[in-house]
From TrEMBL:
<protein>
    <recommendedName>
        <fullName>DUF2939 domain-containing protein</fullName>
    </recommendedName>
</protein>
<dbReference type="InterPro" id="IPR021330">
    <property type="entry name" value="DUF2939"/>
</dbReference>
<feature type="transmembrane region" description="Helical">
    <location>
        <begin position="20"/>
        <end position="40"/>
    </location>
</feature>
<dbReference type="Pfam" id="PF11159">
    <property type="entry name" value="DUF2939"/>
</dbReference>
<keyword id="KW-1133">Transmembrane helix</keyword>
<keyword id="KW-0812">Transmembrane</keyword>
<keyword id="KW-0472">Membrane</keyword>
Length: 352
């Protein structure tokens, strides 16, 4: 070991202690300064905002989310696109403001709602019967799990996320834009909101058509069952004035037969009356309670009172002999089952 060399180094160190300490201190300050500057730069970056936002969404930190998302700009932009695809939603002179409030309230509710995985329902009929909601119950959780920073340039960055809607059975891509502001990076726009709203509306309309078709399909099956159980054999109608020469009585007679294995207790009949030439005069829903057992005939008449001096009354009198077209709307069976032909209206809006 070179002891004289070590002695020289130790002596030099003792002689220049202050200089060496100052040098080390300068190095530490420089390193800390560079690290601090880099950390400061990182905190000003879109990457930092993205990670902070993701963590805030994950923990449901509404206060932090409010600092990172410009909800006023975000909702104002989205509400304009909603007005185009849903002009009836919150319709009125204050529509845009109400839609903005609705958007912000819905998002805030999602943040504060416990995020649980949405139940995936594979049965189409069950999905169609379930009331439609705009946002899945795990909307925020899905965003947290799929949120990613795609591109970033000076002043602008894009975030993307994917959300699956269980009732519509569709995936939606969300593209958010972050901008630099005096307060730092803020999420301000849903860039693809026009396309997103259009896609949602198309999926909803497809669902509405499917709901209507489900009613029509059920009606076809019910009509077959009614025909196999309680077929109508005839419907006739006649009309005449009573002694006051004002009251017109239209009498319709219906004949059917129970060819099934269960008794029919009550029934609702839809009857349409027309002139001899086929011009429709009027229609009525006619009810009866007349238990009819298997193998028995059903014979029943209804009387409809009209004003003989009215335009309708005059057309009924002049249109004889009358024609009657009838169909069962409802049959109440002895077993407790009710066979009913439902109305199949135009697709019904679920969002009012």
């Amino acid at each position: 070991m070179n002891l004289p060399f070590l002695s020289t180094v130790v002596a030099f160190a003792k002689k220049h202690t202050l200089v060496l300490a100052a040098a080390v201190l300068v190095i530490i300050v420089v390193v800390m300064g560079v690290s601090g500057w880099r950390y400061f730069q990182y905190r000003q970056s879109s990457q930092y905002t993205y990670e902070t936002l993701r963590d805030a969404l994950k923990t449901g930190d509404a206060e932090s989310i409010a600092e990172l998302v410009d909800f006023n700009t975000f909702s104002a932009n989205l509400s304009k696109n909603l007005m185009q695809s849903y002009p009836f939603l919150k319709a009125g002179p204050d529509q845009e403001r109400q839609l903005r409030d609705m958007i912000q309230t819905s998002l805030l509710k999602q943040v504060r709602t416990k995020q649980e995985p949405a139940k995936e329902e594979h049965d189409l009929k069950t999905r169609l019967r379930t009331p439609l909601y705009a946002l899945p119950q795990d909307f925020i959780a899905q965003i947290v799990n799929t949120l990613s920073l795609q591109t970033s340039s000076e002043g602008t960055a894009l975030l993307t996320a994917k959300v699956h809607h269980p009732l519509l059975d569709k995936n939606f891509l969300l593209i958010f834009r972050m901008d630099t502001t005096p307060e730092g990076w803020r999420v301000r726009y849903l860039v693809n909101s026009p396309e997103l709203v259009r896609q949602f509306r198309e999926a909803q309309e497809e669902r509405m058509r499917a709901q209507r078709q489900m009613i029509l399909d059920k009606n076809i099956l019910t009509e077959r069952r009614i025909k196999d159980l309680f077929p109508l054999q005839s419907c006739s109608a006649s009309a005449g004035l009573i002694s006051d020469d004002t009251t017109l009585l239209l009498v319709t007679r219906v004949l059917a037969r129970n060819i099934g294995t269960v008794s029919v207790n009550n029934m609702n009949l839809f009857a349409e009356f027309s002139t001899a030439s086929g011009a429709v005069l009027l229609s009525r829903n006619l009810n009866a309670v007349q238990p009819t057992h298997p193998g028995e005939d059903f014979e029943h008449s209804w009387t409809i009172e009209l004003d003989g001096n009215s335009d309708l009354g005059k057309r009924v009198l002049s249109g004889q002999p009358l024609q009657c077209k009838a169909s069962w709307k409802t049959l109440g069976l002895n077993s407790g089952e009710v066979l009913h032909i439902s109305e199949a209206p135009a697709p019904i809006e679920e969002f009012q």
